[in-house]
Amino acid sequence: MPQAHPSSIVEDGARIAEGVVIGPFCHVGPKAVIGEGTTLRSHVVVTGDTTLGKFNDIYPGSVLGSAPQDLKYQGEPTRTVIGDHNDIRECVTIHRGTAKDRGVTVVGSHNLLMAYSHVGHDCTLGDHLVIANAIQFAGHVVIEDHAVIGGATAIHHFTTIGQYSFIGGMTRVVRDVPPFMKVEGNPARVRMYNDIGLSRHGFEPDTIAAIKDAYRRLYRKQNRNQDAHADRRGDQPITGSVLEAAASLERDYPDNWAVKALVENIRNSAAGLHGRYREAARRDNKFHNPVK
User: Fold this and answer.
1) Residue 67: closest CA among 79, 52, 55, 53
2) Using CA atoms, how far apart are residues 275 and 177, in angstroms rounded to an integer?
């Protein structure tokens, strides 16, 4: 049987599974669905059309599924979907989608969202993410699996964060982040391939060697040029030489899945707007998505 503290409000229509624990002073709205074994510790608000999966642990002050902070939003029926085995720490906010996008904000499974982080409307977060304290995701951001993002980082709308990437704390991210790379600074730059993260996740030595070679070809010369000219714009635009290096990697590693993912990210970003390929998918934009 689910357990709810007498001080909490669970509105009629809410669907609460077996083993759910709702602590004191929580508010669960009438369209909420809460899966087996999930715990709302205290002072948690679950509102709107929000689905929580199994065995999530939600800490005090979190607000899940509230209306998006978007002046174009007119109360359309949109959703929030959160997977299983997530730790959502104190005062995290996750806003539901808008009609201008798919109408849903998605958080995957096995994620750690640390205190005061904000997931904006229409974001899609993958699995096994580590989201540190006070990270701010604007709307329509996509985070691929196994990314790690340092505290107090701000991420521009329509940005894609690649799989197994690492973003250092207090970074301003305005362009897509390539998979398997370390990015940090303000302005943000690719600094190195994510050597420690790849080793911890059991990547084969041959795959790590290919990613290292890709970093050397794609970014080392570009970093030297920026350092030499003290380029404070720091936005690392995708130049013709980078695209040429991507093509050479594709020729040299035709069967390497990691190199394929990296090359795809680079080409997509180059085809998009302002280094963000999803920017071109905006429904209020005259441009079209450059990739299917």
Assistant:
1) 79
2) 9
C-alpha 286/C-alpha 163 separation (Å) is 29
Between CA 251 and CA 179 the distance in angstroms is: 19
Burial 156-186 (b: 16+ CB within 10 A, else e): bbbbbbbbbbbbbeebebbbbbbbbbbbbee
Q: Quickly tell me which residue has 């029926």 as its tokens.
A: 77
**Half-sphere CA count of 233, side-chain side, radius 13 A:** 7
Q: Which residues are catalytic?
A: 121-122, 139
Specify the amino acid at residue 224.
R
Exposed/middle/buried for residue 45 (C-beta within 10 Å: 0-12, 13-18, 19+): buried
Q: Is the pLDDT of residue 190 over 80?
A: yes
pLDDT tens-place string over residues 46-61: 999 999 999 999 999 9
CA distance 131 to 115: 9
Quick one: pLDDT at residue 222?
66
94-152 tens-digit pLDDT: 999 999 999 999 999 999 999 999 999 999 999 999 999 999 999 999 999 999 999 99
The number of residues in the chain equals: 292
pLDDT of residue 138: 98
Tokens representing residue 49 in the block: 């059309």
**120 neighbors 69 (Cβ within 8 angstroms):** yes
Residue 181 to residue 167: CA distance in whole angstroms: 8
